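$ ./design --mode recover --in tokens.txt
reading tokens...
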């Protein structure tokens, strides 16, 4: 297991690589190039510069999150083939600079949805929350709500230029149900996985967030059955999962421990986002501190399922609260994620020594 930390780049962050390097046992960065428009090839010189910057700070760059999938691929338009060719070239370019895992998703329109990016907890910290009653019926209203709460940071999956056309996007997806989206996903995977096998890069799809339909949009990476379909439709170790404990557990019907154990054992989880959530009522929740007692998930049980079933990939503490007066991109402060990383590393050390 190798602990990593998501970082958006020097021009997109308040957090410095030197600060991340000081987190005990922190090994690598989960990197990205946020300014590359979806569907375009990631240039080699930009990848090279990012890698050199990170390695100069004493960290590694083995995981990229996210190389987003163009909507034309998800919708199944004739133009998808060119976007798939671009995606394959990006995979080749990333492989040339030592990238081993690409985290991505196949969610229509929105990469993730929360009702509140500044949900206040009793200790005075703030976090992300999902309360169904607070989700507006009009998608344009949720876009405005997110933009107004973003602290002027661009949020992954909520690119303003793309979502400015949200009405057109919803119209384009109107005939795409779960069956059609799954068909288009299979088409994409069958096209790119041979390239991944050729260059040694594992694709790792992120579960839907939340893992059930909102705004009438289809969801196809939402439970154990969907993950099983994914693994079988292109049966290759290069076709994998970013198992996000917070996302998959947002539906209480999902047994996150059994899912983690099964797909680790099947060697299909090269990357994991490990965070805790606390259910408020029904499916409403907020993102809690990592320690088990503060949330609804047993983090020891999650890591034990990973450890006992041979997980040897990359892990990151995922989201964190804003604590100690910190401000920045919601969910992506330095301090609470650092605490989460150290906590998870402590559990892992105990599991290894007990074994």
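writing sequence...
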């Amino acid at each position: 297991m190798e602990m990593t930390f998501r970082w958006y780049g020097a021009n997109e962050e308040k957090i410095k690589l030197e600060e991340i390097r000081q987190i005990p046992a922190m090994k690598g960065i989960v990197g990205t190039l946020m300014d590359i428009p979806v569907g375009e090839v990631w240039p080699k010189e930009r990848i090279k510069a990012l890698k050199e910057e990170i390695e100069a700070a004493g960290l590694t760059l083995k995981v990229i999150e996210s190389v987003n999938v163009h909507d034309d691929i998800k919708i199944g338009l004739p133009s998808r083939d060119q976007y798939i060719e671009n995606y394959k070239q990006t995979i080749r370019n990333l492989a040339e600079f030592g990238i081993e895992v690409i985290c991505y998703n196949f969610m229509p329109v929105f990469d993730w949805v929360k009702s509140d990016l500044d949900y206040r907890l009793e200790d005075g910290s703030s976090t992300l929350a999902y309360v169904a009653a607070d989700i507006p019926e009009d998608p344009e209203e949720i876009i405005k709500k997110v933009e107004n709460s973003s602290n002027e940071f661009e949020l992954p999956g909520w690119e303003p230029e793309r979502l400015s056309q949200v009405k057109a996007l919803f119209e384009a997806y109107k005939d795409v149900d779960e069956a059609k989206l799954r068909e288009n996903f299979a088409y994409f995977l069958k096209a790119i996985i041979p390239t991944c096998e050729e260059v040694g890069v594992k694709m790792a799809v992120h579960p839907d967030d939340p893992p059930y339909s909102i705004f009438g949009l289809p969801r196809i990476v939402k439970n154990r059955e969907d993950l099983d379909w994914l693994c079988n439709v292109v049966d290759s170790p290069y076709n994998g999962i970013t198992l996000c404990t917070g996302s998959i557990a947002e539906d209480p019907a999902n047994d996150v421990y059994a899912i983690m154990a099964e797909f680790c054992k099947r060697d299909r989880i090269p990357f994991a986002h490990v965070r805790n959530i606390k259910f408020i009522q029904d499916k409403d929740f907020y993102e809690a501190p990592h320690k088990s007692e503060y949330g609804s998930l047993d983090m020891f049980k999650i890591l034990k399922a990973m450890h006992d079933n041979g997980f040897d990939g990359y892990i990151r503490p995922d989201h964190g609260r804003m604590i100690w007066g910190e401000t920045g991109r919601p969910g992506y402060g330095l301090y609470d994620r650092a605490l989460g990383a150290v906590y998870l590393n402590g559990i892992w050390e105990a599991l290894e020594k007990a074994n």
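exit 0
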